Design the sequence.
């Protein structure tokens, strides 16, 4: 039985990386001033941030269900089953749309995994699926593992500017103005379904300390047994902030020498359009 792995560009996996891994990545649509682009196909990270900083109207959209269905149909000529890992249903309607498509037109052939992941934790889910395929696991076993472990991850994100949270309606103009004046850098969290505020700080060093302490707390409590069993991994993400992300990754490694740090990746554009450039993030998630 052959199983194909499909995800989307919210995972941070590029089209060239997908070819190397033997998986399939659906490019996410990005709307810029009403014109549609596709991540890593007709729009690079650099072009995206150039448009975002120029005050263009930037938003992300769902991939076409028709196009995804066409991809599944094509893959099922060579594969018996498909595991499709989209971004969390708490952050997009994509998962619900594709789940309905799978259940009505591809029942028993395609499993859409709503395991509440985005960006680097979503990429870890792809890693898990690939490793399980190498171990001879069935599509159903992969589905069950990814669903059973769906809440075993955390992401903490430092936002460098309040401009884009204000633009997206997540802050009132008055709060954003006061926050900008005080140089507040909010630390946000993603615990499965939603992007929520975690803490407010004023300095980059304080933000990094808060994120490290938050991850340490998760590893010492929620994930204590998994950490002891060597089942947790770490990753760092950023929005157009690679040098700071590399420095942060070294600090994370020093803080948690017993845990593998897998990636220093750009955050997905679906998150980036809401928080803007200059962000840093750290994540931990369970591994197969």
Sequence:
């Amino acid at each position: 039985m052959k199983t194909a792995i499909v995800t989307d560009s919210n995972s941070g996996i590029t089209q060239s990386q997908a070819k190397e891994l033997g998986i399939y990545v659906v490019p996410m649509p990005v709307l810029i001033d009403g014109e549609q682009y596709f991540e890593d196909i007709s729009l690079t990270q650099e072009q995206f941030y150039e448009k975002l900083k120029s005050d263009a109207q930037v938003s992300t959209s769902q991939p076409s269900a028709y196009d995804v269905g066409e991809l599944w149909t094509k893959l099922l000529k060579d594969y018996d089953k498909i595991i499709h890992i989209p971004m969390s249903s708490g952050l997009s309607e994509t998962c619900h749309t594709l789940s309905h498509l799978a259940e009505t037109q591809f029942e028993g052939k395609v499993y859409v995994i709503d395991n509440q992941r985005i960006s680097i934790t979503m990429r870890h889910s792809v890693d898990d699926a690939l490793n399980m395929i190498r171990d001879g696991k069935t599509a159903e076993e992969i589905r069950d593992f990814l669903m059973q472990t769906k809440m075993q991850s955390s992401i903490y994100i430092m936002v460098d500017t309040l401009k884009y949270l204000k633009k997206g309606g997540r802050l009132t103009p008055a709060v954003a103005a006061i926050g900008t004046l005080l140089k507040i850098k909010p630390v946000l969290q993603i615990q499965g379904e939603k992007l929520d505020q975690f803490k407010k700080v004023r300095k980059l060093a304080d933000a990094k300390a808060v994120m490290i302490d938050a991850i340490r707390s998760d590893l010492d409590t929620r994930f204590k047994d998994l950490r002891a069993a060597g089942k947790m991994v770490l990753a760092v993400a950023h929005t157009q902030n690679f040098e700071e992300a590399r420095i942060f990754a070294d600090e994370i490694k020093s803080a948690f020498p017993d845990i593998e740090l897998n990636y220093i990746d750009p955050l997905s554009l679906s998150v980036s359009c809401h928080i803007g450039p200059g962000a840093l993030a750290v994540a931990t998630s369970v591994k197969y």
Q: What stands out?
A: The CA atoms of residues 6 and 59 lie 23 Å apart.
